[in-house]
Amino acid sequence: MKFNRAMREAAAYVAAHEDETKPLAAQFAGFDPATLQNFHPGQRALSLGPADLQPTIDLAARFKLIPKVFPAGDIICDCGH
Prior knowledge:
0% strand; mainly alpha
């Protein structure tokens, strides 16, 4: 539960401070910070719910990447809320 909360808070902070955190991200990834200067990430999700994941599960089952469809809620912990 604490881990989920920390990850959500970190994602919210980075979303609000993209330019300030780019040098840290570049250092962590091991490349030149100038590479990220013109990078603008898409919308950042702060949570993941069953409705976000179910279409991926359905397609994976349809294309036989997994044996069968199952409810996404079975693998998403709601303990971080």
